[in-house]
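Lab notebook, bench 4. We co-purified these components, and the gel suggests they stay together. Before we commit to crystallization screens, I want a quick structural picture of the whole thing.
Request: model the full complex, all chains together.
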Amino acid sequence: EVQLVESGGDLVQPGGSSRLSCAASGFTFKNYAMSWVRQAPGKGLEWVSGINAGGESTYYADSVKGRFTISRDNSKNTLFLQINSLRAEDTAIYYCAKVPFGGDYVDYWGQGTLVTVSS
Amino acid sequence: AIRMTQSPSSFSASTGDRVTITCRASQGISNYLAWYQQQPGKAPKLLIYAASTLQSGVPSRFSGSGSGTDFTLTVSSLQSEDFATYYCQQYSTYPLTFGGGTKVEIK
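Here is the predicted assembly.
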């Protein structure tokens, strides 16, 4: 069974940083691309960032480019999102997402971790 | 970025109704479109990918169609567990983008 368990969400001050982690199990992590998708309270889904299976290629939404960094440790089956220079509008549930072969959609989602940016 | 526009943003329906949700892309995306269902307080769930391919385990009352810029998600006979919010997503081009969502409520 595929499991994605996020951690690292917290209350962060504007301008602050945090590192989100996603522990993956139930599939061969090193073979799959992964993404982060977020959802602000009461709002819709927003794709944030993606990374290919080997970690060599990364992609970002314009709203986070230059502030967020996606990475992965295939030896530890873990996906990361370093989030810097946080703004109030970054407040959201951040979902870890598995990408299947053949398409950049999401076939499995984690339960999400909440990042709140507030003073 | 490709803009995905869903309509309607919300509507009410009854159990047993046939319902259709529309998603329009601001430029052609071939069939690189997925549909998700999200229940309140839960993570989204994949329903359909490649515009019309049903994800394993998803009931056959769900179907998708379209290509290019115009797409539809149809539920042939709405069940109680189908009252939720639905999102389309294009994966033709980075940045990946979602539609704004369609909330299906009980009439």
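The CA atoms of residues 38 and 48 of chain A lie 7 Å apart. Worth comparing against the SEC data before the next meeting. Chain A has a mean pLDDT of 97.
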